């Protein structure tokens, strides 16, 4: 177990360093487009997520939403109760009105908005492959499985992201996270990693 964890950490660091180095021009290009389309906000978005052993950390993403997105969401859900039911079930909206037109949708559709999470991996807060990083309000969804969820680091990608993502029910998400934890191994991580690349290139499952 210790050996496997050590190897996984080495692979996380090595892959993240190489990835960030080779995609640095893409990071700069995305940052410029975000500032052009939404100049009042920051390029990066930090959101509190639950990490290993229940420790909270700032999960990094490229900002894809308008400024004051939280207050806008509250007003929107109050005026659209049918969308509120969708949000309460999945903690996200398929056609989110807060997303910045153009660049925001592009980043979401390609999952490029999650690229900054490789800095979380370097900091040791996340792994390249693992369960979804969740927010505090999602804890109850895992019930008795929550303690198992926080026994390892959350991942940039995982079984959920490669199994349909937006078309997967929350109960199925929990099941996939538990399945990963029960069968975790280096070969599985490589399989998920390659499948993630394939999905992004084909733009399917997101």
Overview of this structure, please?
The protein has one domain (2-64, 99-202). It is 53% helix and 10% strand. The chain is mainly α and 206 residues long. The strands form two sheets. It has a two-stranded antiparallel sheet with strand order 1-2. The protein has a two-stranded parallel sheet with strand order 3-4. The relative contact order is 0.14.
Oligomer: single chain
Number of DSSP-assigned strands: 4
Number of helices: 10
> Which ranges are low-confidence, i.e. pLDDT below 50, for 5 or more consecutive residues?
none
Order of helices and strands: HHEEHHHHEHHEHH
Radius of gyration computed on alpha carbons: 17 Å
Assign an overall shape: globular
Keywords:
206 residues, two-stranded parallel ribbon, globular
What is the fold's blueprint, element by element?
Blueprint: H1 2-22, H2 24-37, E1 44-50, E2 56-62, H3 69-79, H4 81-90, H5 103-110, H6 117-122, E3 127-129, H7 139-142, H8 146-149, E4 155-157, H9 170-183, H10 186-202
Parallel strand pairs: 3-4
Antiparallel strand pairs: 1-2
């Amino acid at each position: 177990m210790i050996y496997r964890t050590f190897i996984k950490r080495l692979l996380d660091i090595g892959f993240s360093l190489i990835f960030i180095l080779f995609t640095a021009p893409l990071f700069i290009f995305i940052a410029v487009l975000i500032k052009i389309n939404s100049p009042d906000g920051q390029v990066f978005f930090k959101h509190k997520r639950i990490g290993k052993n229940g420790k909270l950390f700032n999960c990094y993403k490229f900002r894809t939403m308008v400024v004051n997105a939280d207050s806008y969401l509250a007003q929107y859900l109050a005026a659209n109760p049918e969308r509120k039911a969708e949000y309460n079930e999945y903690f996200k909206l398929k056609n989110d009105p807060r997303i910045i037109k153009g660049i925001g949708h592009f980043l979401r559709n390609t999952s490029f908005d999650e690229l900054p999470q490789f800095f979380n991996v370097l900091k040791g807060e996340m792994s390249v492959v693992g369960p979804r990083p969740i927010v505090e309000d999602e804890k109850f969804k895992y019930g008795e499985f929550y303690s198992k969820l926080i026994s390892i680091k959350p991942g940039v990608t995982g079984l959920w992201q490669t199994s349909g993502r937006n078309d997967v029910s929350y109960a199925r998400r929990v099941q996939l996270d538990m399945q990963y934890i029960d069968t975790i191994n280096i070969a599985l991580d490589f399989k998920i990693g390659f499948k993630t690349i394939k999905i992004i290139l084909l733009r399917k499952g997101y």
